[in-house]
Design brief:
The structure holds 2 protein chains of 2 kinds.
Chain A (H helix, E strand, L loop, with lengths): L3 E5 L3 H14 L3 E5 L2 H11 L3 E5 L7 H10 L8 E5 L4 H10 L3 E4 L4 H12 L2
Parallel strand pairs in A: 1-2, 1-3, 3-4, 4-5
Helix pairs in contact in A: 2-3, 3-4
Chain B lengths: L15 H17 L4 H16 L1 E10 L4 E8 L8 H15 L3 E3 L13 E8 L2 E11 L8 H13 L1 H4 L5 H5 L3 E4 L1
Antiparallel strand pairs in B: 1-2, 1-5, 2-6, 3-4, 4-5
Helix pairs in contact in B: 1-2, 1-4
Classes of the chains: A alpha/beta, B alpha+beta.
Amino acid sequence: MSKKILVVDDSRTALMMEREILEKSTKYQCVTATDGREAVEKAQQEHPDLVLMDVVMPRMNGFEACKMMRQQPSTREIPIVLVTTRGEESYMEAGFQSGCNDYITKPIDGAELVALVQSYLGE
Amino acid sequence: MNDNKSDASGQKLSEAEPMNDLRLGAARKRLAESRGQEDAIEGVREIVANFLGSEEIGLFRVDRRTATLHVFWSFGIDPKKYDLVRALGDAGLQRVMRGECHVDLAARDCSGAMAKVQAFVPIRWANQTIAILAILRLLPQKLAFDRSDMELFKLLSDEAAKPLFGPSVHSKLATEGRGMRA
């Protein structure tokens, strides 16, 4: 059974691109959500093997969603990679404090994204 | 035929070129699937932010009748303080009006900050430049525009006019916004 990635972004363009890259470059299956609250719900329902999540989103941002997932027993152990336009150390320190495992900056480099995801899930 | 391309069996993509094709395909699809003007504007913002790495954008309408440029929409810049004509210069403006992109290439100043990395993309309709998309200041992690970005500029130039403006709104929109001498 193929591994599952929950891709979260409020931008239809980013969601489309990230999904295309992952599904055409790997054998992973993708499910999507468009804000942090939906991401927390989908993570509980779908039990993904990894969450790839934007930071700036309506309703609930990526940091908050990350914290919530870390508080739930069913999602506590899922690797979370945040996608951000801001890669400054101080900003990403907040990301790591929220419980994320890693981050990648926009604009996303497809090969870098695939390599990062594979480092958690294997090929 | 490119052997790196994915097929129904899930053959892997591994080279930069197919990644660029995916990016162009996603941008094209996003523009084509826009649900009205507001959504098309959001689509352009998403494409520029996610694929080109800039969150400072201005869209200017060209009014050929009065030879003026009008701020139509902007994001991350103060349009009242931004002078497109000055930023482009005479030669740049002529180039964009002819339908060519005008790109100021990357340079880093002594502090390491990016300086003067910007692109001006003509939005074309019926062989005329009807608007100019100004893409200003790249995100710190994006060092410069590259060849694949030029392909995305071309796509925006050729395919953004219809979803952004549509033929029926050309004349109406030309009178909107702040006047700026071209």
